[in-house]
Amino acid sequence: MKNRHPRWRVPATALVALLGVVLSSCSEPHRPNFVIVVVDTLRPDHLGLYGYNKNTSPNLDRLAEQGIVFDNAFSAAPWTLPSTFSLLTGLLPSEHGATDIVVDETTQGISFPSDPEIWLTGEFQAQGYATVGFHTHPYLHRSVSNIHKAFDEYHYPVSRHVGDQSFAQEGATWTEYMYLDTLYPAAEEWLEANSRREFLMYLHAIDVHGPYDEVRLLDEDRDLVETGLADGSIEFKKMENSHLYPLSARDAQHQSYLYDGHIKYMDVYLQRLVDKLEELGIADDTYVVLTSDHGEEFGEHHDYWGHGRYLYNTQVKVPLVMLSHRDLKAAPGRITSHVNTVGLLPTLAKIAGFELETNFDRRSFFQLLLGQEKDEHRRYLSVSETERAKGSDSIMTSGRFKLITDHGIGTQEFYDLLRDPGELRPLDVRDLQGQVKDEYDELVSLQRTLLDSRKARASESIELDSDAVDALRALGYLQ
User: Fold this and answer.
1) What's the burial of 322, exposed, middle or buried (CB within 10 Å: 0-12/13-18/19+)?
2) Which pTM does this prediction carry?
3) Are the CB atoms for 101 and 71 separated by under 8 Å?
4) Residue 20 falls inside a structural domain
5) What is the mean pLDDT of residues 422-443?
6) Tens of pLDDT along 68-82?
């Protein structure tokens, strides 16, 4: 596969320049604005700037040439609820407590942290930033979790069309109103009214997440898919209940055609956002950060559920790109060290010129923007967790090796990502020797240290009515 977008690196001279402009911007009367765009379920390897050979992201690819691209960014979990909480709190799922849906004979609820001080967005509010969130995702609805408390304003634009009740009653099981057609105009309206304020905006777009109400295809796939639909070799199924995702390798491949088409649709709106910032005269003062909450499986590991169950890179590796601001344009480049989205808000706080608590600051990757590593030997680690299926932890190095541990049954998978980037052939840890054995031992030690040091925050759960449970099941979040 030919990469049409060369892997460029941050030049040393540019990093020195970036250090100067970042530090000088801290004293400017108008501090930078931040727009965080989370494209739900977006895998980096389906984007041109990460080497994809289809034309899914022409606008993002072009914009990224004047920004900072992180080649190895990971989410804290392979599904929406815990990873979104992690991004907004700077905590791992086992620390913030939003780890599972509980549905059994006696309990129907979703767990989430109860500490009102948990949100890092509150630190931006204390610094005078206006904070606002826009979403159309059921898990982010105020009737299901308390994520709305992270923001001064919290908008669910779907309610303009179907009312403002619980997400199950609003017909939120994938309607025409859940896409950027509805989400983006509401955010643009807010920008027009608040462009002279210092702000942090959070946009959570669900367009790439299945199931798909519309058949959106790339031009290069259209003839192939339409011919396949006509002769029966390609099939798009209307799944019911838990059968949301394809149940065979063939179906999974077909799902990816729709996935790519919806990425291209998102890419159009990303350009509209940047154009609006330019029109308002604030593009050079605004960091636009594009990332995702998790990835998506297309049967690579015989998992046809899509996401949420496992910690392979298909489900936890995400894009992370910083765009727009004049400082980025002055020093564009790529960063190869591993980072996790739990460090995003701590990093943005440092860019804005204020400090967070030390434990959050440790997760910041601000130093990478300045060309500095905190530890030359170990460099940066990335941690992802899931409790929905296996109770696993994943610790990845900034280099070749990755350790996945299932603490429930005590099994491990250890991968050499250089020789096995698809994570299909786990190494037998009994046969490890030399440097590889040293890497494994170090990861095991680091994982134990992490487990021993974690302190879970107080959590609670919100009870779901039967309509909400049915809606989650229809979306594939319950089996």
Assistant:
1) buried
2) 0.86
3) no
4) no
5) 92
6) 999 999 999 888 888
